[in-house]
Amino acid sequence: MPRKISHVSEADHDLVTAAVAAAETHTSGEIVTVVAGRSNDYDDVALVWASIIAFLAMSVIALFPDFYQGLYYRVTGGWGHELTANEWLGTVIAVGVLKWIGMWLILLWRPLRMALTPRTILAQRVRARAVDLFKVGTEAKTLGRTGVLLYLSLKEHRADIVADEAIAAKVTAEVWGDAMAALVERVRAGRPGEGMAEAVRQMGIVLAEHFPKSDDNPNELPDRLIEL
Q: Which of 76, 79, 180, 208 is placed for a possible disulfide with 26 were both Cys, Cβ 3.0 to 4.6 Å?
């Protein structure tokens, strides 16, 4: 039986669900909330770093061959035979391969891999994941195309908002700035549930201004917080 994913507490679930329900009492917009542990494995980043370290190691040996050849003879106690050009090339390549493998193994530790990932890449991956989830679960899922996704990726300490066609036509991305700031601030303080609830509250204010509640507006998308 698969282990249940749990990134936040039950109290956080209740807090976010209540915030969504309260926000939607004043707007025909439908807010979907999703929280994920991380948005990507960043395997390609680890691959690049391992390759860089291996290349640098081989380059240093190539730049200072006398030093490293002398080191080789000292290590072998002077009993090692003089390496031919092909043997020396093979040794350099072997060192590069070992460096690559060593760096790859080190980067299996996720916190270091995340720390070595440029901020722009983190932001791009979070955005891409948010858009993918929006297309699957929110886009065109409401009659008036008024769905909006609030996505939080915990390991990256980043969040994103993706809105359906009708909302995007009236609300620019910059308008969500206060909601994003409130969310990220509380996530960094270790209070993700409070952060998402406050972001939802502020999103509800924006949506109510542009898409006030109508009498015949059903609840078309789930209010509950979704964990991935």
A: 208
